[in-house]
Amino acid sequence: MSASRRYAPELVTDLYELTMAASYLREGMIREATFSLFIRDYPPDRAYFVCAGIEDLVETVTDLNFSHSSLEYLSSLEKFPREFLDYLRRFRFSGTIRAMPEGRIFFAQEPILEVTAPLIEGQILESLILNTIQLETLIAGKAARCVHAARGRGLIDFSLRRTQGIQAGLKAARGSYIAGFLGTSNLMAGEWYKIPVFGTMAHSYVTSFPSEMDAFVAYARAFPDNTVLLIDTYDTLSGARKAVQVAKRMRDEGKQLVGVRLDSGDLAELSKQVRAILVGEGFPDVMIFASGNLDEYKVEELVRAGAEIDIFAVGTRMGVSADSPYLDIAYKLVEYDGRPVLKLSAGKKTWVGRKQVYRSRDGEGKMKEDRLALAGEKVPGAEPLLETVVEGGRLVHPLETPATIRERFRQEWEGLPPIYRELRPRHRYPVSIGAELGALQEKTIREKSLQEID
Amino acid sequence: MSASRRYAPELVTDLYELTMAASYLREGMIREATFSLFIRDYPPDRAYFVCAGIEDLVETVTDLNFSHSSLEYLSSLEKFPREFLDYLRRFRFSGTIRAMPEGRIFFAQEPILEVTAPLIEGQILESLILNTIQLETLIAGKAARCVHAARGRGLIDFSLRRTQGIQAGLKAARGSYIAGFLGTSNLMAGEWYKIPVFGTMAHSYVTSFPSEMDAFVAYARAFPDNTVLLIDTYDTLSGARKAVQVAKRMRDEGKQLVGVRLDSGDLAELSKQVRAILVGEGFPDVMIFASGNLDEYKVEELVRAGAEIDIFAVGTRMGVSADSPYLDIAYKLVEYDGRPVLKLSAGKKTWVGRKQVYRSRDGEGKMKEDRLALAGEKVPGAEPLLETVVEGGRLVHPLETPATIRERFRQEWEGLPPIYRELRPRHRYPVSIGAELGALQEKTIREKSLQEID
Question: What is the ipTM of this complex?
Answer without folding.
Answer: 0.96
